[in-house]
Amino acid sequence: MTVSVSSSAQEQQFLQAFQQALESQSFDRMILSQYQGELEQLEKMTFRVVMLQGQPVLSCLYRHKTQDVTKNYSLDTALDTVTALLAQCKQANLMTTEQELQLKKNKKKAMLTQSKNKTVTKAVEQQGHDRVKQRFVDQDSYFLQPLGITDAKAHIIPSMARALSHIQLPEQLRVVDFGSGKGYLTFALYDYLLKQDLNPFVTGVELNSKMVEFCQEVANKSDFQQLDFFQGDVRTYQPERLDVMIALHACDVATDFAIHTGIRLNAEMIMCAPCCHKELRPQLKAPLVLQPMLQFGIHAGQQAEMLTDTIRALLLKAYGYETKVFEFVALEHTSKNKMILATKRKDYQAPDVAVLAQIQALKEMEMKMPSLRITHGTWEELQHAAKMIREQVFIQEQNIAAEDEWDEQDEIAVHFVVYEQDQAIATARLLQNHSIGRVAVLKSHRGLGVGKVLMQAVIAYAQQQQRPFLVLSSQVHAQAFYQALGFMQEGEEYLDCGIPHIHMRLSSIKKP
Ligand SMILES: C[S@@+](CC[C@H](N)C(=O)[O-])C[C@H]1O[C@@H](n2cnc3c(N)ncnc32)[C@H](O)[C@@H]1O
């Protein structure tokens, strides 16, 4: 419907609609553009209602050529402010939950166009009973256009905003988004944190180099100076500090490596929305009573998903995190709508052994995970078991010469042996110079996480002994395994007994 009458009557009608929308709480936003006033740099103004200290206010983002300025007005004086500004603009657009009004002015006349609003989004939160709307992503931000950001992604921010308000924030907030993809959340979050004056340094970590290039370009064009993108596997990105760790729908075990990095670096907040749960599914061994249920593929998938996410949540709990698991968005946006949100407890001192035992019990019941016992001791105490494993793994399987395998270091090293019931299945040794070596798992027990349990025991021992660091020489094929435990590559590859190796170091082994 288009009406054309005198300029002032049209303006009056527009202002009345604005005031009415505020009063009936149907106001969504308003944009005044083609500014003709005295402020040379001013391009347009975007108005929204936001909550400040529990009170709704009219917030205006003044967009200038080189900077944005936000001013807030009480709702009582909003009409006066808008009336004065509207008189200086050639175009105005009002969006309410029901309609869109567009006012266009030229020298001769004004046009007021009214249409039904189909674009008002649901990415707004209800504030108690007053239904005043608050947006977490500014709909006019430059990055929305190239990214094509959706409300489903912006939905994550309210949950994070609530969690952030409960943690102690440092002067610079270091955030890493693992598996950042096209950067939807990375950008939205950076924008949000910047507007909250939290001095964010945000890094998106992504395997796909094209996406990394694209996102970096958009970040540069948006003048987001503290937002960058790292191309590589989540395992290879090892920051020194991390306050907020995010992994949104990162594939396969990328979520788990990200959680590990978050826990290891004592992140204040860890948030992930898991995606695939393929890792545990082949390892599921249903207890007899559950077999009728899990014979159906869909149920086995759901069981693997629940087990995976339960273990993730329990691990976070065990390592001192207040952990919640919930649905963050309606199913119509994405079926992958589960979020694990964890914030570090201030009173955390040591891993909760009761929770770790719960995880172990779950693994024993639901997976082909053996029940393990780990012991450490001298060569005299453990040589029988350690020799048997190393003989099988290094001498027989890898054809390492016996004179290279056995050396005088065994006498002075601390040895570790993993037992399944009474059978020794894995071993490692720790030298006085903090070097871990001779890590071996029997072939029959590989792929079940035994090596990881063994290495965690060695690291825990080193922590107790207050060793300053740990080093090891990894066979190149096992590099990713050690990276996931926090070890970083040092120097170039080299050959040892004809097998390619690489030096690796765990610099920080203070208690998690
Ligand atoms: C489903 S997308 C999610 C992207 C983004 N977080 C989002 O929600 O819009 C998963 C992304 O994780 C990346 N990815 C998967 N495994 C990764 C790994 N090991 N290291 C880094 N990125 C990984 C993929 O390339 C992909 O872009």
What does this 3D model show about the protein?
This is N-acetyltransferase domain-containing protein. One of its GO terms (molecular function) is acyltransferase activity, transferring groups other than amino-acyl groups. InterPro entries: Acyl_CoA_acyltransferase, GNAT_dom, Methyltranfer_dom, SAM-dependent_MTases_sf. One of its GO terms (cellular component) is cytoplasm. This protein is an alpha+beta fold and 512 residues long. The chain folds into 3 domains: 2-116, no CATH class; 144-365, 3-Layer(aba) Sandwich (Rossmann fold); 372-506, Gcn5-related N-acetyltransferase (GNAT) (Aminopeptidase, 3-Layer(aba) Sandwich). The protein is built from 16 helices and 22 strands. It has helices spanning 7-23, 78-86, 144-147, 151-154, 156-164, 184-195, 209-221, 254-264, 291-294, 297-318, 353-366, 379-397, 402-405, 409-412, 450-464, 479-484; strands at 2-5, 27-35, 42-52, 55-64, 68-74, 89-96, 99-105, 110-116, 173-178, 200-206, 227-231, 244-248, 269-273, 321-327, 338-344, 372-377, 414-420, 423-430, 435-441, 470-475, 488-496, 499-506. Strand 21 (488-496) and strand 22 form a beta hairpin. Helix 1 packs antiparallel against helix 2 and helix 10 (297-318) packs antiparallel against helix 11 (353-366). It starts with a strand and ends in a 6-residue tail after the last strand.
